[in-house]
């Protein structure tokens, strides 16, 4: 395959720009707090776009359009569930978490927060939450690497094996160098690129098929029910898709953006910016998959690659319909989606290994620079493991994301929600909620009972475990109750 020069030049410029941002962030990273949370200095715009970009990984431009292309508009229930869940996350969790983490020993990571919030001197909460982060994030990182590999494989004709390393290299380098500041600044650029691609591409596809009425006619003839939002959907299927929204309460890479905001007062503006960006991006992704059905029905001779793998639909439409220079910019949006999510996942894993294992158990008095460099080495370690997991070319992006999303949503979602809203919650409750939530997801995934998405039983089981076990054993101390009350009053004061 001959590599298009405009595509190659565009990708090189884009990657070089991200590495340059990483270099400047490296110059601004003075201590471990800067490396992990950017010194809690993010304003509303960067908080909103960074949270959005870190949330919407390669599945936004590959997995979701591919699902719509293969099954029709009924797959958009996932998008509806995500919009509801994201809004509730901004409304209920964002500001409270920002305040509570500061009141609880200025916690930098979720395991830090859990340990301080529940006065866990046994360190069990720290260890179990860090293990959950490492297990599910390694799977999540693998999904991003698969998406990047698919992009490089399709665009440059590389073997899948070579594309794995090429797609991951730039992300690893700028995360290694700049830490949280690099990730947040690049996320802002990447979020802008993603929304540009997802607004422009469906408009050009609609124009290419002759307009919306003509497209709808073709799609209706493509197969029964492709235009019906409840086609082949029973109650369990719809609830499962809407259940994706529950995952937001427990995603460490998104919650880290809330913790890093300059103030909880920034959250109102950040919520408006973030939700507008998200709704437009999801609508664009659904439109690409939906109207892509009409385009490839009209041009079956061009449909070879998407018939083999529906997740390539955005890539193929972009290469076919756009000038190579514009196509290079739009395809960089997939790389942006992959890099933005993968980078913050690597950083959260790095922080868990550095703070919650290395410092907690081996080097309690480790200095700032030592912790920064250990954090950088942990980025490399997790990245290599994720690349090894992603080596199977039959991996599907959406499948890997759904498992990791459910794991975090059920293990951490109920614990975060209740820890911010229920003063009486105890350390036993938090521990039980994590273990029961995560275990339920793993068990349910193996047997797929009733076809119900595993996050729903996992989330419910986690909530019940928290309530039951909070009343078993030791109650929270007066100091813990007072810290909770102080944080609550600060949040409510504005």
From TrEMBL:
> Main localization of the protein?
membrane
Where in the cell does this protein reside?
Cell inner membrane; Cell membrane
Superkingdom, according to UniProt? Bacteria
NCBIfam families xref list:
Na_Pro_sym, sss
UniProt keyword terms in alphabetical order: Amino-acid transport, Cell inner membrane, Cell membrane, Ion transport, Membrane, Sodium, Sodium transport, Symport, Transmembrane, Transmembrane helix, Transport
Tell me yes or no: is Signal among this UniProt entry's keywords.
no
Name the family. Answer: Belongs to the sodium:solute symporter (SSF) (TC 2.A.21) family.
**Recorded catalytic activity of this chain's protein:** L-proline(in) + Na(+)(in) = L-proline(out) + Na(+)(out)
List where the protein spans the membrane.
Answer: 6-26, 67-88, 127-152, 164-183, 195-215, 235-256, 277-296, 325-353, 373-390, 402-422, 429-447, 453-473
User: What protein name is recorded for this chain?
Assistant: Sodium/proline symporter
Alphabetized InterPro entries for the sequence: Na/Glc_symporter_sf (IPR038377), Na/Pro_symporter (IPR011851), Na/solute_symporter (IPR001734), Na/solute_symporter_CS (IPR018212), Sodium:Solute_Symporter (IPR050277)
The gene designation is putP
């Amino acid at each position: 395959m001959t590599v298009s020069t405009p595509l190659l030049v565009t990708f090189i410029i884009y990657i070089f720009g991200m590495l340059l941002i990483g270099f400047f962030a490296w110059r601004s990273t003075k201590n471990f707090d800067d490396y992990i949370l950017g010194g809690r200095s993010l304003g509303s715009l960067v908080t909103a776009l960074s949270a959005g970009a870190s949330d919407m990984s390669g599945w936004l431009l590959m997995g979701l359009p591919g699902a719509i292309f293969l099954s029709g508009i009924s797959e958009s229930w996932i998008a509806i569930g995500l919009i509801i869940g994201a809004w509730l996350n901004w409304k209920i969790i964002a500001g409270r978490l920002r305040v509570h983490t500061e009141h609880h020993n200025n916690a930098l990571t979720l395991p830090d927060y859990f340990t301080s919030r529940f006065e866990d001197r046994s360190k069990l909460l720290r260890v179990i939450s860090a293990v959950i982060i490492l297990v599910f994030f390694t799977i999540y990182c693998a999904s991003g690497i698969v998406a990047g590999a698919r992009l490089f494989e399709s665009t440059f004709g590389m073997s899948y094996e070579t594309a794995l390393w090429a797609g991951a290299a730039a992300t690893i380098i700028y995360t290694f160098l700049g830490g949280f500041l690099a990730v947040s600044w690049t996320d802002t650029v990447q979020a802008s690129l993603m929304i540009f691609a997802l607004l422009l591409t469906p408009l050009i596809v609609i124009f290419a098929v002759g307009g919306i009425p003509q497209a709808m006619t073709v799609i209706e003839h493509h197969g029964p029910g492709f235009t019906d939002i409840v086609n082949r959907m029973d109650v369990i299927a719809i609830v499962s898709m809407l259940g994706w929204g529950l995952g937001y309460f427990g995603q460490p890479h998104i919650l880290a953006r809330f913790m890093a905001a300059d103030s909880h007062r920034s959250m109102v503006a950040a919520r408006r910016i973030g939700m507008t960006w998200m709704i437009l991006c999801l609508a664009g992704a659904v439109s690409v998959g939906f109207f892509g059905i009409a385009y490839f029905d009209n041009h079956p001779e061009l449909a070879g690659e998407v018939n083999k793998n529906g997740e390539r639909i955005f890539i193929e439409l972009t290469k076919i319909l756009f000038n190579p220079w514009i196509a290079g910019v739009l395809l960089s949006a997939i790389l942006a989606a992959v890099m933005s999510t993968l980078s913050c996942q690597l950083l959260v894993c790095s922080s868990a290994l550095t703070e919650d294992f290395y410092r907690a158990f081996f080097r309690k008095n480790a200095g700032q620079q030592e912790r920064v460099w250990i954090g950088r080495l942990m980025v490399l370690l997790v990245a290599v493991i994720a690349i090894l997991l992603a080596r199977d070319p039959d991996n599907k992006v959406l499948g890997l994301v759904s498992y990791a999303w459910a794991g975090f949503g059920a293990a951490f979602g109920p614990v975060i929600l209740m820890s911010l809203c229920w003063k009486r919650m105890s350390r036993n409750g938090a521990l039980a909620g994590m273990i029961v939530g995560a275990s339920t997801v793993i068990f349910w995934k193996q047997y797929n009972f009733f076809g119900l998405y595993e996050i729903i039983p996992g989330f419910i089981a986690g909530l019940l475990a928290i309530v039951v076990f909070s009343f078993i054993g030791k109650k929270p101390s007066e100091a813990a109750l007072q810290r909770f009350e102080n944080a609550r009053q600060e949040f409510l004061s504005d």
